[in-house]
Amino acid sequence: MLALSLMLVSQVMLAAETGTQLQRVDPEADRLALQQYYLKRFPHVPMDEYVNGIYAVDADSRKQWDALMAFPPYEFDLEEGEALFNTPFANGKGYGDCFENGGIGIRHQYPYWNREEGTVKTLEQEINECRVENGEAPLPWKRGDIAKISAYMAFTSRGKRFAIQIPEDDPRALQAYLDGKKFFYSKRGQLNLSCANCHLQGSRILIRADLPGPALGHPTHFPVFRSKWGEIGTLHRRYEGCHRDTRSVPLPPQSDAFRKLEYFQTYMSNGLPVNGPGARK
Hints:
- The chain is mainly α.
- The chain has ten helices and five strands; from the N terminus they run ααααββααααββααβ.
- The chain has helices at residues 2-13, 27-41, 59-68, 75-86, 123-133, 145-155, 171-185, 195-199, 235-245, 256-268, and strands at 112-114, 119-121, 224-226, 231-233, 278-280.
- Strands 4-3-5 form a three-stranded mixed beta sheet. Strands 1-2 form a two-stranded antiparallel sheet.
- 37% of the residues are buried.
């Protein structure tokens, strides 16, 4: 049954659609196929639980995590993120002037396709663009203040359900989705591994001493405080680390490929609630 499910998911999701095939691509069919795969594999796990990653599907890991979450390790980062978000720039403006609804409760709309620029835009990307537009230096992408600000913005959006759009009348947006999908399923590095090897087929299967979490819901809890890092970090920091773990040369955070990967992965999690920031091993 598991092998058959994997085959069905592969048939729907692994094709490399290009050129005239673009018009036949159906991202919503991809999303539903991924959800059905997990519903069959872990039939007793409610869909919304997938925002909790491996802790949704492994009882022993969940017990340890529940104990950790009695005092979430990101609490101080949230406080600092709120203070940073509300601190005016030198020109008197602030982050709230750059975003819809003053930057509150909007995390579920990211990443999105920017038609005018013809590119995928992420929340961290627009945090830094806000700074530059107001005469401030951009922040490093992976950790520190940008992760704290993003964590606070995510926290204000908790419970809102992701609703990523792929405009049907803009083939560039669909191609960006497909590029992200291709990246997710493409093998790379000396270990010849793809994202899917660990987080689709490998969900809850030991890789050395680790149990990879499900691909479904993967972006919903970022930024995360990882015990391994000892601090809070962004999704693209995690992408970079995973890329390095395959023994390939990692791409830089907020590179075009990583933004498209985030676009694909977050669309796959449409309908799930924002649960950031999170805590992981």
